[in-house]
Amino acid sequence: MLEDAQVERYSRQIILPQVGGKGQEKLLRSQVYVDGDGLLAAAALFYLVAAGVGTIGVARAKAALIFSVLAQRPLGSDEQPVAHTLRRLNPDCTIVTHLDEDEQPPHHYDLILATTDALHDGWYAQHKPFVWGAASGEGARLFVSRGDRADRPCLRCLFSARVNLPSKRRAKAGDSLDSPALSPPYALFLGTQLVTEALKIILQPESDSPPKLLAYTFPSFHCTEQTVEKNPHCSVCSTQRVNVSTA
Q1: Is 115 inside any structural domain?
Q2: Contact (Cβ atoms closer than 8 angstroms) between residue 62 and residue 41
Q3: Cβ(147)–Cβ(158) under 8 Å?
Q4: 3-state secondary structure string, 165-227?
Q5: Which of 55, 101, 137, 155 would give a disulfide with 181, using CB separation of 3.0 to 4.6 Å?
Q6: Partners of 144 in the β-ladder
Q7: Residue 215 resides in a domain
Q8: How many domains does the chain have?
């Protein structure tokens, strides 16, 4: 049950039919791990906190410099600027810093929001969603890999597909959403898009919307959608699909 202070804090979300009081309670119980560094990952963290996601995990080594600037005071050796800053913004949120950024996050997280594909394959094996994006100075793309849906394509299917991308180079393993050429307005915009997709999964996990690549072109902020087909020969999800169906 939401407290009066929480009803006031999240009033703009609660009035949305897609959220409501029940949805906000679900957000407060949800747990999201953010894998990425730089301004874009920082923007995503700020929006997750604003939405009231209950537990947010972040790799200690990937905390963006902006959090140290916003801390406003010297911190102790064991106090992390990202956790300190985000807790000040919303005391409802628990910020968990993980020491080893290369390890798979604990299984209790509902999904990963990532600006790199490094954790995708291991997380898909846990049958959980993975929200991914990549960008350059001229465009960006966003894709949701539904490890919890065996009939949906994974991120490796996207990499192997001949999809139309807004940038001059195609997406490939190891791509990062943060780019030196990515300006702050674009990073903030993309941060909202990543968080929106994450919240949609939390609030409507059984959505039947088809898997699509969202491609954005800057500076017009033009968005196009392209359906992504599952690769029957994918080394990640085709194997996982067999394991799920024979379990």
Answers
A1: yes
A2: yes
A3: no
A4: CCCCCCCCCCCECCCCCCCHHHHHHHHHHHHHHHHHHHHCCCCCCCCEEEEEECCCCEEEEEE
A5: 137
A6: 131
A7: yes
A8: 1
Strands 55-59 and 139-146, bridge-based pairing: unpaired
CA 119/CA 163 separation, integer angstroms: 22
State pTM to two decimals. 0.85
Phi-psi region for residue 84, left (φ > 0), alpha (ψ -120 to 50) or beta? alpha
Quote the domain boundaries for residue 30: 21-246
Domain CATH for 147? 3.40.50.720
Q: How many CB atoms lie within 10 A of CB 235?
A: 12
Per-residue pLDDT tens digits for 107-140:
999 999 998 899 999 999 999 999 998 877 778 9
Q: Which two tokens stand for residue 73?
A: 């005071």
Q: Is residue 31 part of a domain?
A: yes
DSSP string for 34-67 = EE--HHHHHHHHHHHHHHT-SEEEEEGGG--HHH
